[in-house]
Amino acid sequence: MARQRHSLVFFSGPRTTTPLLYLASLWRIHVVTEHLSEALATFEEGGQSTVDELKKVDLGTKDDPRPTFLSASLSTDEEVEFMSLLREYHDIFTWNYTEMPGLDPRVAMHKLDVDPSVRRVKQSQRRFRPELVPEIEKEVDKLIATNFIREVKYPSWLANIVLVNKKNGQIRVCVYFCDLNKACPKDDFSLSITELMVDATTGHEVLSFMDGHKNASTTYHRAMQNIFDDVLHKRVECYIDDLVMPKPRNISELKRFQGHLAYIRRFISNLVGRCQPFSRLMKKDTPFEWDESCWIAFNNIKAYLTKPLVLVALIVDRPLLLYIAAQEKYVGALLAQCDEDNKERSLYFLSRTLVGAEINYTPIEKTCLVLVFAIQKLQHYLLAHSTNLISRTDPLKYIMSRPILSGRLAKWALLLSEFEIKFVPQRAIKGQALANFLADHPVSAEWELTEEFPDEEIFLVEVLPHWEMYFDGPAWRNGAGVGVLFESPRKDLLPYSFILTQNCSNNEVEYQAILLGFGMAVVMKLL
Description:
InterPro entries: DNA/RNA_pol_sf, Rev_trsase/Diguanyl_cyclase, RNaseH-like_sf, RNaseH_sf, RT_RNaseH. This protein is of the alpha+beta class.
């Protein structure tokens, strides 16, 4: 049985004569098993850096000190406010293991669902510097005294310990769970949706993370949902994750890196465009060569993340602005909103790569595609707000004005009918959000001139049996009508008729008839 309290989970294992098998999740310093050598190197060098310099404070008394740390960059008023809050709730924090009463197993209990078909691994014992051994024994004795761990005889699984420096100069003892993670199937307990969680936590200032065994986060999430059930989504939000971004060294690490970026994609404008140099490395049978273009793209992404555009929270009952842009190989979108000062503020970035037949779409079809992609991803925003669509062309008119809707156009039209979207022409660049969006989605001057057949020479022309089109258009006092008839090479007839709501002369009705006929022929791929 596992105990859990204050983001800690422990498992049974032997003492210092053999490797330990327990987990101590980290509060401030994260250890990722895939980068164990980097963690050890950092430990040997003497510690890890923090974002802010820390200031030591005492929440206890002279006889019972309770040291902790605050950011040294806090103002005097902020420090007084935080100290007052911490002293008021000092009883919920612990400074030693004996103060942890444990968590009722009925609330949450972490179990190791080890696959019996997987070969059990006993890692070879790691050697430590002699001066570190007393510190390790001292830490283990603390855990044994509080019944967090116990010695086992004849263990079938053994994992080495990992040492990490604390900010107070002491060490934290953790475990290298690489082999155990491979033997445990993933816990598919559903975590919160990232996009909704980011919006829900707007204004919150504290995040808590839990690391270690790969399913520990789901156990912690279950516990938090049970503990904070009555105040969850009202005063408390719980989410678990962390992020490490080293330089990819192989295709697996590149996929992991792109997965990390996908997690924060809403904060990065034109993410797919920025990752284009990585696309060729993902192709099958392509050697992994991290060249200069990959280095430049990798460093540009890191530089962008150090000073990203500031996204704001959604304002209820205020219309949204949806900017869309289409490139040759990828598309992008930006959701924005005007604040109280009528200044445009960015809310959400979207982008994706065109795949398969999508690359051969015409520019207007790619614009329709990015609109559909955006509303599918942002439907929880668009269903609750009216939306102004801003782009160089009007995809709504293109879809809704087709005489015959079939295939993907029919699906797109049905999907768009759920939303209140109004097209606004992009006549001038007035908002900063639009200016930044266009800067990240440059359009080549030659791209719009791409012909239907880009090859300079045509080697074969096949003459197909032709269709015949007949049209007519009578006009009367209160309206007009249009009739179009298609005759196939096999003499099959396809008649169509339309009513025009506007008043037209006889000649104008004839013009409308032939235009509708040509439009239907294009949709039916007769031209």
